[in-house]
Amino acid sequence: MDSLTTGDSEKLADALSGDLITAADPRYDEARKVWNGDIDRRPLLIARCADVADVTAVVTFASERGLPIAVRGGGHSVAGQGVCDGGVVIDLSRMRAVEIDPERRLAHVQGGALWQDVDRASQVHGLATTGGIVSETGVGGLALGGGIGHLMRRCGLTVDNLVEADLVTADGNCLRVDATTDPELLWGLRGGGGNFGTVVRFGFRLHEIGPTVLAGMVIHPLDVATEFLTVYRDLIADAPDELGTILNLRLCPPLETVPERLHGSPVVALNVCWSGDLEEGLAFLRPLREFGSPLLDTVGPMPYVELQQTVDTTSPPGKHYYWRSVDFGELSDQVIATVVEHASRITSPLAAVPIYHLGGAVGRVPATDTAFGSRHAGHNINMFGAWEPGQDDRERHVQWVRDFSDAMAPYAVGQYVNFLNDEGGDGVRAAYGERWRRLVALKRRVDPQNLFRYNFNIDPGRPGEGDA
Question: Which end of the chain has fewer CB atoms at under 10 Å, N or C?
Fold first, then answer.
């Protein structure tokens, strides 16, 4: 179906407490935008839901008419999964409430919340859970695919802290999902993405973190990246869980904390978060901070909430983005050489090459406990291509990403689902690996018609396919 009658739209609008936006609405073009300006899709309807009843009404409406559904939280997916062509968008941006239970150390988070909402509310109580490193990232998309962030080595991935969820499924029912009510569905939500419905409330386990951590950046010129990465590799070999680090090779962005003279210069930057005793952190990091002559060293005590907003301006909405990623083991000499070589060919001041240090609590979770893969990986690298709207050389930036990805393929031990882009069904299946059959069986149970398919889709497939 690619059209609706006026009566259909009016019927749905009357049933909602929130807003319904059609193509005739002057707000339509703005409402269909997502973070990645490279995405240009035209849904039939955009429902800005105000409550759970709105979500169930929209799901039922779409199901009865065979319309695909895209669920938008923060709209931060590079693949543009928060908007669809010829279907219905469930926009959760009006559902951002966060309630903290400090006694039970739980955060109850509505499905449209951003990570800044969770961080602010939880840090009032000196609590936190692993969230995205960009504060404007939506909770839902990041949490359902895995959730890597500054605290993951100490607290686990976001999915490891997901203990319950309220889920509106394809039949229009709202289910409370936890380890008692439906442990298999909870397993699927922990890494299986938005395949199983619309989560209208998350329940996350919280940890004692902050409100002050040891954080900041150490920046060196790119021409010493090989030596710096070697020193870094040796340091993190024995790193305690309290240390979270993200390397980034790029043209230095115009951050407020960075002197203007460095803006645009090729650099290797290390972003640090030490969530334990500050003096112990300073002592552990000393060998790395004493390497060479850094262009900038801002490491020091910092509010955790501030750390979570540090890089917000480096990936602004509306720019055009394309990326790939690879999970790999060690920062071997060969990997370092490959990374430095391709980072040196970076095509845009907006592009970046973040490398996330995994391990710690991430690697101690048994592989069968969640739908998330690559528990044994040591690192994830994200080849992050980006360019300004209106540029006519898209292919140059895309090709840099693809060439980089191809060069890293020999070292790959997996892929992070949330960092997939346009790899298609084969890429999704490969990312889930041995979990695929179990996920297909679960998808077939809760969404056999694949109503929720604007995601890294687990197609219920033909009878017999995917059965254990």
Answer: C
Q: Which two tokens stand for residue 120?
A: 């602010």
Contact 162, 202 (CB under 8 A): yes
Mean pLDDT of 334-340: 98
Q: How far apart are the first and last CA of the chain?
A: 34
Longest dimension (CA), the chain: 69
For every residue of 78-146, which 3-state class applies, written as one string? Answer: CCCCCCCCCCEEEECCCCCCEEEECCCCEEEEECCCEHHHHHHHHHCCCEECCCCCCCCCEHHHHHHHC
Query: What is the rounded distance in angstroms from the CA atom of residue 219 to the CA atom of residue 228?
Result: 10
**H/E segment holding residue 216:** strand 212-221
Cβ-based neighbour number of residue 198 at 10 Å: 25
12, two tokens: 């749905």
Per-residue confidence (pLDDT) for residue 464, from 0 to 100? 46
Tokens of 338: 């490959």
Q: Centre a 10 Å sphere on the Cβ of residue 369 and count the other Cβ atoms it contains.
A: 13
The pTM (predicted TM-score) of the whole model is: 0.95
The domain segmentation of the chain, as residue ranges, is 6-91, 98-208, 212-419
> At residue 260, what is the residue type?
E
- Alpha-carbon Rg for the chain, nearest whole angstrom, is 22
pLDDT the model gives residue 1: 42
The enclosing H or E element of 283 equals helix 278-289
Picking from 209, 79, 96, the residue whose alpha carbon sits closest to that of residue 149 is 209
Of 360, 412, 350, 402, nearest to 381 (Cα)? 412
Tell me the CATH number of domain 98-208, given options 3.30.70.890, 3.10.28.10, 3.30.465.10, 3.30.1320.10: 3.30.465.10
Nearest one of 245, 268, 246, 264 to 254, comparing CA atoms: 264
- pLDDT tens column, 312-323: 999 999 999 999
Q: In the chain, helix, strand, coil percent, each to 5?
A: 35, 25, 40
CA distance 289 to 270: 10
Strands 352-357 and 320-328, sheet pairing: unpaired
Q: What is the pLDDT of residue 3?
A: 60
